[in-house]
Amino acid sequence: MIVFAGPHTPATAVGKAWTAVSFRTNTTDLVGVTQPGMPQAGLRDLPGAIVLGGGVMVEAGGSLVGAIGVSGGPGGEADDACAKAGIAAIQDKLDF
């Protein structure tokens, strides 16, 4: 059986990257602190915020330079692993 990611996937990936940069936090780290009943639960209601694994900050020289968003894997953990692997593959080009 072949499964393809849905048409929502590109926008979700962009939203994950935007969320990571906006909150200066990897989206996986936001999942727990934004659960219902938690003080930061309202972050999930902000327009454009995607609180699912797969949004990872990109840092170079000790500074935040952007983020990568991955979507379409079978869960946030897979998206997160893919994002981190992508960053690792180019980290030598980022360090200055």
Summarize this entry quickly.
Helices cover 43% and strands 14% of the residues. By secondary structure, the chain is α+β, with helices and mostly antiparallel strands. The longest helix is centred in the C-terminal third of the chain and has 19 residues, at 76-94.
CATH architecture type = 2-Layer Sandwich
- Give me the Rg, rounded: 14 Å
Strand ordering within the main sheet: 1-2
CATH superfamily: Haem-degrading domain
Low-confidence stretches: none
Shape: globular
Q: What structural category do the secondary elements indicate?
A: alpha+beta
Helix content: 40-55%
Describe this structure in words.
This protein is of the alpha+beta class and 96 residues long. It has 3 helices and 2 strands; from the N terminus they run ααββα.
What order do the helices and strands come in, and which of them pair?
Elements: H1 9-23, H2 27-33, E1 55-60, E2 63-69, H3 76-94
Antiparallel strand pairs: 1-2
Q: Any key phrases for this structure?
A:
Beta-Lactamase; 2 strands; 96 residues; two-stranded antiparallel sheet; alpha+beta
